[in-house]
Design a protein that fits this description.
The chain is built from six helices and 18 strands. The chain starts with 26 loop residues before the first helix and ends in a 7-residue tail after the last helix. About 5% of the residues have low confidence.
Amino acid sequence: MSVFELNQIPLLSRSALDRADHLRDEAHALKEGWATARLLRVGRRGAVRYESGALVWEPATDLSAEPSPDAVFLGVRDSVHLWAVRDRELAGELRDLRQLADTSIDDFTAGVLSTALALINWHAGAVFHGADGSPTVTAKAGWSRVTEDGREDFPRTDPAVICLIHDGADRVLLARQHSWPPTMFSLLAGFVEAGESLERCVEREMREEVGLDVRDIRYLGSQPWPFPRSLMLGFAALADPGQPLVFSDGEIAEAHWFTRDEVRTALAAGGWPARPGAGLDAGAGSETNTLLLPGSVSIARTIVESWAAADDSPLG
């Protein structure tokens, strides 16, 4: 069979952010640091101001004289405290993380945005305690929420598996969701259910989405996915191309086996959403069709690139 490993760390996993978690409970230190701290404003759909090839930071004191309960502490860079806050009225030259990922952003920017989005998205849905609906307020510089009687909740992360199914030689299965244009294909993915291991989740999701029985499941790597607050766990697995595809859960519109050469050609053409208008008039399988693969923000891109770069000679 064809065995491969990730040939690089997924983009959003390359964080160079010093989270300085030891400061989250240090109210005095945070108050002192606020005087010179920098603040990142996060707008609708996670958009941020990005000008001259860099994030736009502003003095934290423009928001308030002391650390604001609306802001979340991200970490420290060059002894300067970094915070983020939701600003639904944010205007200017705005970009979101998906757009920035295809502009070769540095590891620090990737780490800052992944952390800020995940935290801010969690806070938006955690205003009330899950047990009895009691109101909660932020604590630990935005890294937890507490009720009036001291019960504490921490940022939620939802694990999801994403799997490259291949035949052990030179073919890979790629699928398209109903909401995607006709030429956009990616790997299969799904959320881990309660009481379920990652490997069993891979088996279940692949069977539910395309009806395939997979085997030789191998873990590849992981990536934060702050849309809104997930962790993507990457796998590869083998399946028989002769087994019929069955789309039983209704999530997948179509799936096809592609050769390594077809995938390499698509990778060389770039990724979506960077090329939103390319080849969308032709249906999958037509001679004029242009296969579009995920952009660099997704671990799916890294997994597909790693598989495409591997030797396609079957091993023992």
